[in-house]
Inverse folding.
């Protein structure tokens, strides 16, 4: 879902740069207050894994592929604020070194796949988990739905940006983007759950670190 | 080895790049929509290129070039995210 330059106009690019910058400033503050020593290497490992996994496009319907975004996964493990910083690390490296996602559009990409994906993943996961209780399958379902919702939400915001930029009419972009990402989101959910189950089986302690999260303040 | 669990994590991420040549080459969701709805032509080329398309330049074998690009990116992101964390971590009052 990396937006190349040319898809968003200057006002949308500027607005999303400002929105992402503000969100990241807050994320830096929260992370600074709450990130524990053990979570420092986990940030590096999550960033590395998400970058690598984003290279693995999986086929979905009709000659279309998708890949993990990872915002929900990073958020479930480290909270939305550290999650945003991890996603921003991935997206900045992709834009600067791999020419994946435009430089002008970087603010929009950070906003969609960093800010929106992490916040939607965070709220979906915490609400669902509260609903389902502290059961193992509750965490699995919550993780799947949070990951799926984070992708669909990012796609919807992306469609809005394309429409406001005049690149594509909202009536065209919104249903098209939402529909294809409803499918891609299933892959996101499956990969996210696979990683959570793997960690639960091997390093349960990493799942139980207190995430840098919103709420109780 | 217990103390260096994150090395295992980094190795897993690097291992993932080894299967990156098998990734689907089909356009992703946004590219597909842009092609179908006729605005793919709006996309502009980057002003410069370092490792475009996740293929390390100057290497004949594309699978090797892809894996190498993946390893470089994975290590750079690891360093960046780890560095951010180290810089920002909560410090106990001393």
């Amino acid at each position: 879902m990396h937006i190349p330059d040319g898809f968003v106009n200057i006002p949308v690019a500027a607005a999303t740069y400002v929105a992402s910058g503000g969100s990241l400033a807050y994320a830096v503050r929260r992370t600074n207050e709450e990130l524990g020593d053990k979570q420092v290497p986990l940030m590096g490992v999550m960033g590395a894994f998400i970058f690598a996994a984003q290279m693995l496009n999986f086929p979905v319907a009709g000659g279309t592929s998708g890949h993990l975004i990872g915002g929900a996964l990073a958020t479930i493990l480290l909270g939305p604020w550290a999650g945003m910083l991890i996603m921003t690390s991935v997206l900045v490296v992709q834009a600067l070194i791999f020419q994946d996602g435009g430089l002008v559009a970087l603010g929009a990409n950070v906003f969609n796949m960093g800010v929106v994906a992490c916040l939607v993943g965070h709220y979906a996961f915490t609400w669902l988990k509260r609903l389902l209780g502290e059961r193992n399958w509750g965490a699995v379902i919550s993780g799947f739905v949070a990951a799926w919702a984070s992708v669909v939400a990012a796609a919807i915001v992306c469609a809005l940006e394309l429409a406001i930029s005049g690149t594509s009419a909202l009536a065209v972009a919104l249903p098209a983007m939402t529909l294809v990402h409803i499918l891609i989101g299933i892959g996101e959910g499956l990969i996210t759950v696979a990683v959570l189950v793997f960690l639960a089986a091997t390093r349960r302690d990493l799942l139980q670190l207190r995430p840098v999260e919103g709420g109780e303040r | 080895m217990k103390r260096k669990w994150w090395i295992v994590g980094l190795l897993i991420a690097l291992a993932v790049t080894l299967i990156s040549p098998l990734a689907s080459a089909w356009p992703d969701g946004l590219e597909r929509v842009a092609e179908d709805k006729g605005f793919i032509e709006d996309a502009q080329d980057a002003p410069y290129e370092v490792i475009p398309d996740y293929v390390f330049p100057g290497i004949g074998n594309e699978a090797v070039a892809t894996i190498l690009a993946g390893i470089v990116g994975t290590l750079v992101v690891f360093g960046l995210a780890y560095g951010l964390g180290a810089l920002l971590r909560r410090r106990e009052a001393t």
